[in-house]
Amino acid sequence: MKTFKEKLHIGLNQEIKIKNRLINKKSNFQKIEIFDTLTYGRVLALDGVIQVTEKDEYAYSEMLVHPAMQALSKKAKRILIIGGGDGAVAEEVLKYNYVRKIDLVDIDKEVVDLSKKYFKKINNNSLVNKKLNLFYEDAFKFIDKNQNSYDLIIADRPDPIGAGKSLYKSNFYKKINNIMSESSIAIFQSGVPFLQKKELKEVIRDIKKYFKYYGFYFTVVPSYIGGFMALVWASNSYDFFKKRNFFINKKIKTKYFNKEILNASFAVPNFLQK
């Protein structure tokens, strides 16, 4: 049986047995692999790094979306997703019927097109929903020419390697701040602190230059090796940490997210409090 080897972190490899290889090609931007596994179900990998799996994507997508959506409640009508070409994050946002529109910006059209075909199980056809607008371009260019403001911005960005490095520059957070509505929250995927503590500290260092309130909370995604994952939040009007005990809309169906998980996710270990 063939195997997929992920070598994201120096000295630490993840090896997964492949049951069936579906896609193995290069787009104009990156290497795209889609394959079925015994452990994680169907998997999407970009440039040799796992992006999403059928088995545990909800632990990631739900925590990127629901804490902020529940906090903002019906104020969250205009949503921007940067990255997220697999459609899993958009699927979670679309669970809220008061959302008016979602703009999804992903530089690689091939990832989106392949996800429409191969990842319906996790995106529930969100990528063809009428509320969703797809933009295939660089996030910086999109933001620079954008005339809209957003109530929630979700940066479903890759790790700070290769093309993903630009989405971790200080100027990125400045540009995000410029397109946020008055009561907006922004959420940024920011790696696994046990292995990427330096990167997390750099994100916080840069974000606090442009936002009044900021912090991070955690989720655990087994296919993302290195332990729990940090999701950084930022706002100029909303202290997300103090408001985390808000009402939970139990009509929204989730597999991972609930009130207890939400409150626990804000607990910060001592090694990150310095």
Describe this entry's structure for a reader:
With 274 residues, the protein is of the alpha/beta class. The protein folds into two domains: 3-53, Spermidine synthase, tetramerisation domain (Spermidine Synthase, Chain: A, domain 2, Roll), CATH 2.30.140.10; 57-272, Rossmann fold (3-Layer(aba) Sandwich). The chain has eight helices and twelve strands. The protein has a seven-stranded mixed β-sheet with strand order 8-7-6-9-10-12-11, with helices on both faces. A five-stranded antiparallel β-sheet has the order 1-2-3-4-5, with no helix packed on it. A hairpin with a 2-residue loop joins strand 4 and strand 5 (49-53). The longest helix has 16 residues, at 57-72. 42% of the residues are buried. The mean pLDDT is 92.
Short structural description:
This protein is of the alpha/beta class and 274 residues long. It is 27% helix and 31% strand. The chain is globular.
| Structural class label | alpha/beta
Unreliable sequence segments: none
Write down the Rg. Answer: 18 Å
> Which fold name corresponds to the CATH topology of the largest domain?
Rossmann fold
State the shape: globular
- Please, how many helices? 8
Query: End-to-end distance, in Å?
Result: 46 Å
CATH architecture of the largest domain: 3-Layer(aba) Sandwich
Name the average pLDDT. 92
Oligomeric composition of the shown chains: single chain
Q: What topology, given as strand order, has the largest sheet? A: 8-7-6-9-10-12-11
**Structural domains: how many:** 2
Secondary structure: helix percent: 25-40%
CATH uppermost class of the largest domain: Alpha Beta
